[in-house]
Amino acid sequence: MSGPTTVSARTPGAAERLLHYLDWRVIRRLDGLLQGDYHTLFYGHGLDFADIREYEPRDDIRHIDWNVTARMHSPYVRQYVEDREITAWFLVDTTPSMTFGPAERPKLQVLRDYVATLARLLTRSGNRVGAIVYNGGAPRVIPPHGGRKQVLRLIHEIDRPGNAEKLVESDLQKLLYSGLNSFRRRSLLFVISDFISVPGWERPLSLLNQRHEMIAVRLWDPRETELPDAGMIYVEDVETGEQLLVDTSNAAFRRRFQAAAEQREAALQALVSRAGVDLFAIATTEDIVSAIVRMAALRKQKRM
After folding, report:
1. 162: how many CB neighbours lie within 10 A of its CB?
2. Backbone angles phi, psi at 244, to 5 degrees
3. Among candidate residues 80, 110, 85, the one with its CA nearest the CA of residue 98
4. What is the pLDDT of residues 48-90, one digit of tens each?
5. CA nearest 132: which of 89, 168, 192?
6. What global pTM score does this model have?
7. Crossing angle of the two packed helices 202-211 and 251-274, in degrees rounded to 10
């Protein structure tokens, strides 16, 4: 089971039905598989500042306090304690490229189900969740609140029509800089996108990571990396409207297409790695439960 079939929160009661589905068919499975231990998902290096001490081997260099280090002429790090009541933000990309994928489950639907699931897990433990939604225009900020109603609001905002239905080139800088200007206290951030964007987003990503606990999630579809042998077809850039006639029966062309996709992937991995951010990839074909369990296992492994 990869998740709910296409459900639009634009129809009356659809958001409530989706959340009911997630409660019974997704979150209950996660409770069983993770045995209620969401610590590795939501708690990383702590959220509240506690003290400053000298740097020791294996300390996270992101916690170095450069002002104190300069004064003391040796590296010092900030220590944090885990705050069980946290504020989480979802920075979500709903631009046109996110509508790509199978008709029954495009990237945008995977994004919505993923956000709704994590938001539900967080709010039922008394935490607050907020979101910044970017679909090509000015990002929309949904202030953090707790409770089931807040999760329903996030579902509505993600499904809300906007510039995703127009021709617009994605610029993730707008989303990330909006976060830099909005967050007042250290928070848990989920940046969720396909990272198809004009260049320049890596700087605000790095700045956000210096101040917050961050998880980046890349959504992708297998057809973005490997073309089927379907003869002559038109391919269209959903963000610019540009069309191109290509011969997918040409094996050399398919190999070049795959090589270009692998190059883009390597470049993305390098940019995110330089920013010091954890990057998790979720395919449109992957079960949302297995994706979250895999993410929890990778975060737990990294912390050991």
Report:
1. 16
2. -145, 130
3. 110
4. 556 788 888 877 777 788 888 888 888 888 776 555 678 999 9
5. 89
6. 0.82
7. 40
Say if CB 8 and CB 164 are below 8 A apart: no
- Nearest-Å Rg of the Cα atoms of the chain is 20
Domain 14-43+87-227+267-303 fold is: Rossmann fold (3.40.50)
Nearest to 61 by CA among 73, 78, 46: 78
d(CA 39, CA 202): 28
Provide CB contacts within 8 A for 219, sequence distance 6+.
98, 107, 110, 111, 192, 193, 194, 281, 282, 283, 284
Of 193, 144, 200, 190, residue with least CA distance to 164: 193
Task: Give one word for 231, left, alpha or beta, with left for phi > 0 and alpha for psi -120 to 50.
Answer: left
pLDDT tens for each residue of 216-270: 999 999 988 887 767 777 666 666 667 777 777 788 878 888 888 899 999 999 9
205: tokens are: 């990503």
Q: Where does CATH 3.40.50.410 sit in the chain?
A: 14-43+87-227+267-303
Backbone angles phi, psi at 83, to 5 degrees: -100, 115
Query: Strands 188-193, 243-247: parallel, antiparallel or unpaired by DSSP?
Result: unpaired
Question: Is the pLDDT at 184 greater than 60, yes or no?
Answer: yes
What distance in Å separates the CA atoms of residue 277 and residue 171, rounded to the nearest whole number?
Answer: 19
- Tokens found for residue 245: 């006639």
End-to-end alpha-carbon separation of the chain, Å? 31
Average pLDDT, the chain: 85
